[in-house]
Amino acid sequence: MAPFNPTTGLPLKAADGFSYSQVFGNKMIQLAGRNQKVVAICAAMINGTGLDKFYARYPDRIFDVGIAEGHAVSFAAGLAVAGYRPIVAIYSTFLQRAYDQMMIDVCMQKLPVIFAIDRAGNVGADGETHHGVFDLSYLNHMPNMTILAPADGRELAEMFEYALTLDGPCAIRYPRGEALDFTSVYNGDYGDIKKNKVIFEGTELVIFAVGKMLSIAFEVCLDLREKGVDIGLVNARAIRPLDEESIISIAKTTKKIVTIEDNVITGGFGQQVVSLLINNDINIPCRNIGWPDYFVEHGDDKELFGKYKLDVEGISERVRDFIERQT
Description:
Blueprint: H1 20-34, E1 38-42, H2 52-57, E2 62-64, H3 69-81, E3 85-91, H4 92-95, H5 99-107, E4 114-118, H6 135-139, E5 146-148, H7 153-163, E6 170-173, E7 197-200, E8 205-209, H8 213-226, E9 231-235, E10 238-240, H9 244-251, E11 256-264, H10 269-279, E12 286-291, H11 301-307, H12 312-324
């Protein structure tokens, strides 16, 4: 729990803007208003996943199955077979309980179920059991699954629009906390939401950053570019399928590649990029940056990102060291 007033139960610090969960909840109301087949499913987390307003507006189109994530996914598969467009909102760490149902009931049948994966990545004060740092790894190998990772609130909303056009399953993973806004960085041009977005080009090194890590990588790039480093930055929002054309093209125009993700390195986005380059006979030094291969302890975001060198200072140091290496 974050600090709160013990008398009222209210948080001591009010949110400055919309959280990703609230952006999702508002988008759900829009989608349901246009499509009568859109329904929501959650597992005892209506408020936590931002579906409270949806519940107030469409009480007959939301199903809270309780703490039964496996049933939530199988139930969604049944609704999809019946012609509905179910959107399953579950925290990343809790969705692990439904691995088999996702694989067999949804992916094997290639059913159009959308997974709204909240609290993806490190969740700080929620603690060791709640860090959602494994979802890219346990989703990446699921056949027929599309995986997207928004870097700001608008991308999150647009990805749900895109997911509803698909004939198969789609997972959209987004972090805890206030939704960012990259409108000015993109100059208003978000491009094709299912493809990577190039922010800076760079001949010395290019960073591919996933989701919330884009904001940190952006600060790193600004710092190093001011110091004369020709460093590039890409919003790697297409996790599966990879935007192979973009990755291969960039790998042929730069000297080194760094991937940054709010996920464990093992089985994550970075290793998929390395595998792609190897299979295409592209010999380029790569460095994968993410969470270590063990259970990260409890702590606030600043403490943990600093300790594991995933904050601006830590990543800047690691990128500089990588650039200076001769191999």
